[in-house]
Amino acid sequence: MAAASAPLIRVGIVGGTGYTGVELLRLLSRHPNVKLHAITSRKEDGLPVAEMFPNLRGAVDLCFQTPEKAALDQCDVVFFATPHGVAMAQARELIAQGVRVIDLAADFRLQDIAQFEQWYKMPHACPDVLASSVYGLVELNREQIPGAKVIGNPGCYPTTVILGLLPLLQAKKPLIDLSDIVADAKSGVSGAGRKAEVGTLFSEASDSFRAYGVSGHRHHPEIVEQLDRIAGQPVGLTFVPHLVPMIRGMFTTLHLRILPEALDTDFQTLYERHYATEPFVDVMPPGSLPDTRSVRASNTLRISVHRPQGGRKLVVLVVQDNLVKGASGQAIQNMNLMFGLPEATGLEQVAVLP
Amino acid sequence: MAAASAPLIRVGIVGGTGYTGVELLRLLSRHPNVKLHAITSRKEDGLPVAEMFPNLRGAVDLCFQTPEKAALDQCDVVFFATPHGVAMAQARELIAQGVRVIDLAADFRLQDIAQFEQWYKMPHACPDVLASSVYGLVELNREQIPGAKVIGNPGCYPTTVILGLLPLLQAKKPLIDLSDIVADAKSGVSGAGRKAEVGTLFSEASDSFRAYGVSGHRHHPEIVEQLDRIAGQPVGLTFVPHLVPMIRGMFTTLHLRILPEALDTDFQTLYERHYATEPFVDVMPPGSLPDTRSVRASNTLRISVHRPQGGRKLVVLVVQDNLVKGASGQAIQNMNLMFGLPEATGLEQVAVLP
Amino acid sequence: MAAASAPLIRVGIVGGTGYTGVELLRLLSRHPNVKLHAITSRKEDGLPVAEMFPNLRGAVDLCFQTPEKAALDQCDVVFFATPHGVAMAQARELIAQGVRVIDLAADFRLQDIAQFEQWYKMPHACPDVLASSVYGLVELNREQIPGAKVIGNPGCYPTTVILGLLPLLQAKKPLIDLSDIVADAKSGVSGAGRKAEVGTLFSEASDSFRAYGVSGHRHHPEIVEQLDRIAGQPVGLTFVPHLVPMIRGMFTTLHLRILPEALDTDFQTLYERHYATEPFVDVMPPGSLPDTRSVRASNTLRISVHRPQGGRKLVVLVVQDNLVKGASGQAIQNMNLMFGLPEATGLEQVAVLP
Amino acid sequence: MAAASAPLIRVGIVGGTGYTGVELLRLLSRHPNVKLHAITSRKEDGLPVAEMFPNLRGAVDLCFQTPEKAALDQCDVVFFATPHGVAMAQARELIAQGVRVIDLAADFRLQDIAQFEQWYKMPHACPDVLASSVYGLVELNREQIPGAKVIGNPGCYPTTVILGLLPLLQAKKPLIDLSDIVADAKSGVSGAGRKAEVGTLFSEASDSFRAYGVSGHRHHPEIVEQLDRIAGQPVGLTFVPHLVPMIRGMFTTLHLRILPEALDTDFQTLYERHYATEPFVDVMPPGSLPDTRSVRASNTLRISVHRPQGGRKLVVLVVQDNLVKGASGQAIQNMNLMFGLPEATGLEQVAVLP
What we know:
The structure is a homotetramer of 354-residue chains.
Chain A: E1 9-14, H1 19-28, E2 34-40, H2 49-52, E3 64-65, H3 67-70, E4 77-80, H4 86-96, E5 100-103, H5 113-120, H6 127-132, E6 134-135, H7 138-141, E7 150-152, H8 156-169, E8 181-187, H9 202-205, E9 210-211, H10 219-231, E10 237-243, E11 250-257, H11 267-274, E12 281-283, E13 301-306, E14 313-320, H12 324-338
Parallel strand pairs in A: 1-2, 1-4, 2-3, 4-5, 5-7, 6-7, 8-10, 12-13
Antiparallel strand pairs in A: 8-11, 9-10, 11-14, 13-14
């Protein structure tokens, strides 16, 4: 843990009534270098946070406040756990006041503004801030994050797909057919957020399994933008998300075509070496089959690499907790880097199993 | 429904203490043309079936009996809801006595005996009976089933993969790359059977998602044998099964490469026409996203056909109840055909939703 | 089954977009004496019912219609699967046109209008119709139901509590302390209906257990009114409902004080005799422990009677499917009686297990 | 947290292959004052613990060892996460070597040996050690625990029932009818342990609810022994446990009869005052309805007090995580006291919600 004598980071959270908000609070309330300064909700002004989220009783004493009362300009960093579009409206002013911004929504994920506007159906409010923001996938952008004023925290699906492909894309020679990447992804229901909707009612989503967004999902352009950049060429991605009757957890199955000239690659070793020093990426031993519960409530992402029957297909399995490594934990990982803390500070929780 | 005046089919069930057994009983106890004659279990001899399965109280009066007492030779048909290897040991004698056999295990699924012996780790007891048996996928072999003495009831995964591909494989011209078929399949936990095992305990399988059998699954050779035969050439199949925290239900996502010369195919129409007269295959309207609950406890299999962003990949989604169309319902569908009944007799139940 | 030659009952359903609506459709679409005439929804006018509820594809061809188009006056019977207050606004006109009414909401459950108005926060629209209506608990009011023009279909909790107590209350001599009846009840989430609400989202209700309505629940006065009437004296009831992370199913645990003078009662025999001829009430053998899945998707209610350590407390366990015996199945049971059909017509489904 | 300079407590765990074992490891691996010395399993000798429990990968490096290799005599404290009967066979020797013992099974819970032998079907191996052991319910026996050599860690149900009643039993005057205490308790499935059994398979326990142990449960005599002692008189307890389809969590509903002379008691204040300084017992505000997820994976137990309609019954609702406060967390709470650490050391985790 970091030295107790360092000054505490004053943290604000905008829009803390959803699942990424309560998860930020669960983690930050035990972070040794953080002081929770304010949490905003226009609608719930005055309500003790712990009344909405009783798991926080005794751990978080704050009440929701309107943004006006919250004095966010006195924070060192503000997390936006809001719907898309909120962070970009406030980011410029905050950073002008020396406050750093970590957006858990999509406002700073896509550098391609046309793509942003097509998928999120709104104009971008601050293209210049976007241009200077950093995509907060630590394992990809560890060098740029400490200096960033604004972080676009990655989407949950993109985190699994990009980290599942990174060792392949950054290898010295081409290994897989980049024109035919299949990501068959499965998410727990909390990924849909804490919105009152029929489709995610218990009686609708329990004891059933379904696909969604097959014709197009907002995470598709985000993944492609990153993969294109990493690969230095356009990739072809088929991305099919599914809904699993579980609360937390994300499981992505990557089906990849090994290039003929790469059939003798030792993919297991490739992955192990690539992630050898990463604190939150765990390449499992050969033959392992990860399950989402092995990362439940922790910031770890686990990968296992398979080559069925030693053939021409590579199957990469990736698991994470969508609310931690896929959202709030990753955001705190970014914060730690931005403030010079050891990357794992406050994120050492062991996954909860069973 | 069939005329009530027809003589009742005397039915025996061997090994009815598992989930396919209780599901056979649920359905057969309300089948208008069936008289349940006997159900065997060496271990549970004398126990009323309804004591083990309380849903059957008032519907099934039988007690489990040893095979010796059960007089299976007086049956018209015997279902084997047993572990692999049991049916093939008894089939020859039963059919010699004029009893027809429907095996819900794997003894009569694979015509390639070498494959059978490799995957099931036992010699085949009756290759000649196997040679004359019929693979009981009605939508594929409707003509041969009525005359069959022994039916190998298809595995649950193969049912979804084969029916999901059949319109493509039986089309007049090649449509997809047969060397690269990806079946990313997801099953409810009941597919693992009613065996006391740690891995399928509630506390292990609930609120989690995982893959299994990535390096090899017994249904892989079964699927490939059928696809090879239908396509008239070897196919390349990547088959990755996953375990979903739900009781019943199977969802298979097929990722297919459309051949360049077939890019202008109207796949929706192809599927609709192919299955237009099938009572238990429902091709959903364009854009539909099936969920497994829409077939829960029914014999219907639903398919939807997608082409994300109008590109080169075809994504076919298939759902069924693994215990009904994937096992016991399909077995009864076979029985109906074997005894000249309308195919849907006793299988008209509407799926249970929610 | 009833003779196929009888004229079909023309059935209308008002407000079929909820769970009791789809459950009525599941059951009625296979009822041999029913013709579905119309189903209304002002909001969904024109939408095929099977598009909202895909389990009905191929089983129900109707579209939702506005009440104006639906010509409900041409029905023989109309089910109201609506929020409280709708049926009472339309009942008078319908019965004037010879249409019989079965209300699955609360408009005709409470004869005490003051209680109704206190708990449901609305004036009663037709006290005279209410006065002539019958409380549709068949096992209690089998004689009055055939002649009823309007049926108040019982609430789900009241069905379990009343049927769990009926043999005691109708015994020849006092058996339990009527001033201290504890009903600790547990319901699946579908009891909350198909409303978009945060509290019943999957991520809120799954993998958790909670009580609700401890300070007062609308079913409390309904239960008390019936118990008072049956007992012929005021009873004291503690009713604590809980929410179980399952879709369907209701489990009520009754904790009762045996009167000192009744300690030698054979309660098992009392219950067995009381319900000996009931088609849908199953008194289980001594020592049985019912589970809700044993009645899933069926109209059966099961009871077991316990006396822990042979002491002074009687523990009665009651299970039902809240959507069938607790709602739509019971409504059809009423319809069968009203139209002179065998009580079990169309309700013979065996429970789905697993 | 405790000073990092204190010598680390060397901890051994006997039988760590079950759920209380893995939960001890999750918590102890992050405990600042603990060094994990050994974990034993005769069957799994040599297996890395993290291979059986992948959530521990990177957090626990130990392998299972046979007891012979484990050198438990070098530990400061040994936890027994074993079946009943194991701890009492080894306790005498361990404490002779200066090792303290915390048993998570039942060997040291019941002082009444006749009761122990009746319910656990084995003779007690060390009545003298039992006599000097302490029942490790911290909120009851905080004074005796620091000096104890052997702790009997309470059962999960007893923890909820006793703590739910304690303010009433320790009040200055009689408040409730002690002859008629009803504890209607509900537990998640992990309470049944990690044993391969049909009854707790996912397909058996999911989407269903049932009672068990109605005729007698081993926690009944444990609860009664403690209540008798606290009350100074025999109590009458009806205890009905139920199984909830959730992994973790326990919810106990206490139905109590308020004595006529105590009807003016302010029960809310009584409870709040009683537990005002307890770090792990949270008396919720009036009208609160606790859910089990609000304590998931944390050591907190929450209580809310209700008096429906202001009547003669008191309804007390108690929730805990059965594996933490109901088992492993409570055991560590005991350890902290035994070794002079602040009681909450290593147990500050915030509950995981959703």
